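Title: Comparing notes on inverse folding

I've been comparing how different people in this forum approach sequence design from structure. To keep things fair, I'm posting one structure and asking everyone to reply with a full sequence. Here's the target:
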């Protein structure tokens, strides 16, 4: 268990949004630091003990995307990108460059804290001594040792590709995975950016795990970006 509360670095140049994020974190008892520039963020990351970064992409000195690339050269620290609504390409690109998640402006304090908790849980899992091999979300369970999937307690049959896809989601539970990332993991790098095969595969998997595949409760579509297995 952590012996101290994780410190969140807020990188945001908009004073209103920064104030809102600070207030939300204070309510939950999270220590935080703030900066309005990319350069400020990089300096604080070197001098302070920071556990998670909330990063606005549009910063006055240089692009937040550049911050992600530079940080990823030396650190696995969780990065949650804060992005505007109409910038789906930017979100996907941030994730492909190593960001862990994103929040779309405007967001609620509840949404903000939920994303922070998911990122922090992953942080502790990575350092955990024992690798879990069985995961469950609601009534959906996967056993990575036996390569079996259960729904409502009964084993369900999946094709090898459907199984690989589902296992990928369970290994990244709660995290949004970009279409490009999934295609590279499932079909291999060099397969290209043809998303039709993935859409077909996803439809097949959803028919098996979702009561109503049109309104999925387990694997949600993140429009323009990718998919996310919910973390309950
Ligand atoms: Ca900004």
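Reply #1:
Here's my take.
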């Amino acid at each position: 268990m952590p012996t101290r509360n994780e410190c969140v670095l807020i990188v945001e140049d908009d004073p209103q949004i920064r104030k809102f994020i600070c207030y939300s974190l204070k309510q939950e008892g999270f220590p935080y630091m703030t900066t309005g520039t990319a350069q400020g963020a990089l300096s604080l990351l070197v001098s302070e003990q920071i556990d998670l970064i909330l990063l606005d992409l549009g910063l006055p000195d240089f692009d937040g995307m550049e911050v992600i690339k530079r940080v990823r050269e030396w650190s696995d620290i969780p990065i949650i990108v804060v992005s505007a609504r109409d910038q789906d390409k930017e979100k996907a690109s941030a994730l492909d460059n190593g960001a862990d998640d994103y929040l779309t402006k405007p967001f609620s304090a509840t949404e903000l804290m939920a994303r922070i908790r998911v990122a922090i849980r992953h942080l502790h899992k990575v350092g955990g001594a024992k690798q879990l091999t069985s995961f469950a979300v609601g009534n959906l369970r996967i056993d990575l040792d036996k390569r079996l999937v259960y729904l409502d307690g009964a084993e369900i049959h999946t094709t090898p590709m459907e199984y690989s896809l589902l296992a990928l989601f369970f290994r990244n539970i709660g995290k949004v995975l970009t279409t490009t990332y999934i295609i590279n993991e499932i079909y291999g790098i060099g397969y290209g950016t043809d998303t039709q095969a993935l859409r077909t595969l996803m439809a097949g998997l959803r028919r098996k795990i979702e009561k109503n595949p049109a309104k999925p409760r387990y694997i949600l579509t993140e429009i323009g970006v990718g998919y996310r297995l919910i973390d309950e």
